[in-house]
Q: What sequence folds into this?
């Protein structure tokens, strides 16, 4: 079956760095997405990886290793507004998005 | 970035009535739109894939006669929850795939409460 695993909840301190991991087993692979979702709101796009390596975009970076079925989202200089759920999603061979359950990130002052 | 709108943002209806939710892509033509449902503290659950000009593809366990989807144009898809019951109360989110890119753009969601 298809499966995406990410931690349920993480806590970090304002100003620090946090890494949210995602592992996947899917039928085929056509890219991995990270989305941010604040409570009561729809998800917003953060990043897309289809090749191995690190993609950096401001305070957020995303890494992919296809051979390991592994990705992480790195958030630097954490701000209180970064408190949200972070969703990992993989596009399978049929170009359908398979969603992880999300990681709730709690930022403490 | 691309914008997807959804209307209404909130709706409260009585049990047994029907509710229609609209999803529009505002600056691109979307041949494919997706409808998700999200219960509190849970991840997104894909309900169906809406294809312009053809029938929607429903996920296993989703009743096609209860959740009617119409994708009448390249910028509009509608989801009608028929004979709504309290257990249908949820956050319904649509998304549209921009054919020029890869990601899905999400609408702001519709919070449905059935009393």
A:
């Amino acid at each position: 079956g298809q499966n995406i695993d990410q931690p349920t909840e993480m806590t970090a301190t304002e100003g620090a760095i946090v890494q949210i991991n995602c592992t996947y087993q899917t039928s085929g692979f056509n890219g991995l997405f990270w989305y941010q979702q604040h409570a009561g709101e729809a998800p917003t796009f953060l990043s897309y990886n289809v090749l191995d390596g690190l993609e950096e975009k401001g305070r957020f970076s995303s890494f992919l290793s296809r051979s390991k079925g592994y990705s992480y989202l790195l958030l630097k200089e954490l701000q209180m507004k970064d408190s949200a759920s972070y969703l990992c999603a993989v596009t399978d061979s049929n170009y359908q998005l398979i969603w992880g359950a999300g990681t709730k990130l709690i930022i403490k002052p | 970035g691309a914008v997807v709108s959804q209307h209404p943002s909130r709706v409260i209806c009585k049990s047994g009535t029907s509710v229609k939710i609209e999803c529009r892509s505002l600056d691109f033509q979307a041949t494919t739109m997706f409808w998700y449902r999200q219960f509190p503290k849970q991840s997104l659950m894909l309900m169906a894939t809406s294809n312009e000009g053809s029938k929607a593809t429903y996920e296993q366990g989703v009743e096609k006669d209860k959740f009617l989807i119409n994708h009448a144009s390249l910028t509009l898809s509608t989801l009608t929850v028929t004979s709504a019951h309290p257990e249908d109360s949820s956050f319904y989110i649509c998304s549209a795939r921009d054919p020029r890119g890869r990601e899905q753009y999400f609408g702001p969601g519709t919070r449905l409460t059935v009393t």
Observations:
- Chain B touches chain A at residues 1, 34, 42-44, 46, 49, 91, 93, 102-109, 111 (CB under 8 Å).
- The mean pLDDT of chain B is 90.
